[in-house]
């Protein structure tokens, strides 16, 4: 499968190898998952994606676990199977319990349902909601 | 606009009026937003949606603000304009600061981008991510 | 609004005018809605769309009202506001009652919810469902 | 695969086992498909989903086969592979012939095409379509 | 897999066989891919799809490779795994280099990200952009 | 409308003002469109988005007009009304003729249709398409 091959470490360009080294250091594991191995064909995109991901997912006004669950929610709505798998695993690694996963999924399902109802009914935005 | 009219209080069936009374009591405001006024044409769906929403959005393993931000994230991914407006307003009412909103949006945007990259690359799920 | 203008009857190419005449005859009304007026900039696409639409929406194994409700359901899932409006109007013209609309919307909402749950859970297809 | 395991009958909570018993009785088969086995990790969501599904899919102003085809159409638009498989199987079990499936798919494809054209053209909603 | 079987050459109706012959002639290969073999259950839809595809993808104001990359971009946004695979292969056959594929994917990812940001921010359309 | 206000020049942070100056210089116009004015509430996201957009949309293996049409195609598939308006305007500014726009839209519509058919049929990926 895949529209590009997954690059092994020995096939990486120096720029891509540098990003892989940073991923390994940041995550404290030797394992680099398939997404990065596919992206490595384009070292500039790999670099830009990794650099931005680090910033976006870092602790801030929201904690990293909340951010990871937001990532799973969006990936679910976008029907990205790989992304649901990888970010669910990441969320579990950051402390998402079975209860938290179940509640997150219930919200995602509820939102999908009311999104569809609102669209089917073509409800106008209340003035009260306009910034 | 709308594929159905928005029902005024005096046009509600007794079953719908009962749900509206519960919404007003739960939210401690007389204001009932357009979604419910459109849904009120089908009192059974109105009842089922309200009953389930209360349960799903209640405090649990996740706090209500996190749930509201998950709702906004899914609504954004599903391109539901009304839902983005109404749940962003709800999240602000529950304490979402400008910084939290900005970080949430940054995660939503990042997820949308990597979802698209993964789909375009057709990356295979790593064995490590399979439950 | 619009990324192209809406063509008035006097601005139509002969090929587009011919399609408009067919739309008016088939629908037994002088009114031609905005979709066709936007599409008329590309007479070949206008012709292909109209010709195919007539065939697809004609009575067959499914009756036209069922087909129109399927159209609304897909348009809702695809977040196409114009399409929800126009095909809901068409479904009503073909006999969709308020009860039928409400039941259709309830199915659309239910499907959106379980679609999201299945994607979030990444449920594997049962062997029993494979053709 | 899956972000949760599929629960076997012997792993069910009493609440989940009760829902499974109802599914078996309603469908008159011992077979319970994977969706329910994944959902069973959250007995409250399992219960809510099953209870609501029974009501929404019951005969009413629309017959169950029409509802099932609407379900397939939405699942297709939402790119839910599992859902397309399971609800196509359900529709066939309720009497969907090959001709009906072909006509349904033709409508789904036509709707997807014109949804995209309308969005690309950003056609404004006709006043005639506003409720 | 599949909600219908893939038809072998010997199972085709005369109308479907005729379309297959045209596909083979146009593509100068004996290989007919699975999409057409699934679609062949509905010869009228097969004919309509093939006839229109030939016209839409033919050289015109845009060259066929650009059209093929647009096809991949839309298929990616619509999460159609099969379509991403088949149209990426077609684009490569028409001359898409690794660099072109990488740049196309970078645009698709960027667009997905800003689409989400715009929707989350609910930005109003500038008057300057209205046709 | 909007879930945040649109910032006027005098309300910008120094970091945001710097990005606005770069946008004005790059585009050789004083006009800065609403997307950037909404994004300016988060100067870091504004900076990251602008910096990356410049790189992604620059001439390379694909010319800027092709990239802009890919952007419109994805925005259409993602139902982002603002994005369709703004990137269609940008494509026209870069030389997209009416014929090119019509052909692009025809491809987008065709892709949406066959994406839906493939998903409804659940066609398996041909071995020939696997990289």
From TrEMBL, chains A, B, C, D, E, F:
It comes from Marinibacterium profundimaris. Residues 43-122 form the Carboxymuconolactone decarboxylase-like domain. SUPFAM superfamilies: AhpD-like (SSF69118). Keywords: Oxidoreductase, Peroxidase. GO terms for molecular function: peroxiredoxin activity. This is Alkylhydroperoxidase. The lineage of its organism: Bacteria, Pseudomonadati, Pseudomonadota, Alphaproteobacteria, Rhodobacterales. It holds the Pfam family CMD. It comes from the Bacteria. InterPro entries: AhpD-like (IPR029032), AhpD_core (IPR004675), CMD-like (IPR003779).
């Amino acid at each position: 499968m895949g529209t590009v091959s997954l690059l092994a470490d020995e096939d990486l360009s120096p720029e891509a190898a540098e990003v892989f080294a940073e991923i390994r250091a940041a995550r404290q594991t030797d394992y680099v998952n398939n997404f990065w191995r596919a992206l490595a064909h384009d070292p500039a995109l790999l670099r830009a994606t990794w650099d931005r991901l680090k910033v976006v997912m870092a602790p801030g006004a929201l904690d990293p676990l909340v951010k990871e669950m937001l990532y799973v929610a969006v990936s679910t709505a976008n029907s990205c199977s790989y992304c649901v798998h990888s970010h669910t695993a990441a969320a579990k690694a950051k402390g998402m319990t079975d209860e938290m996963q179940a509640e997150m999924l219930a919200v995602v399902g509820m939102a999908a349902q009311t999104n569809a109802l609102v669209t089917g009914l073509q409800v106008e935005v209340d003035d009260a909601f306009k910034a």
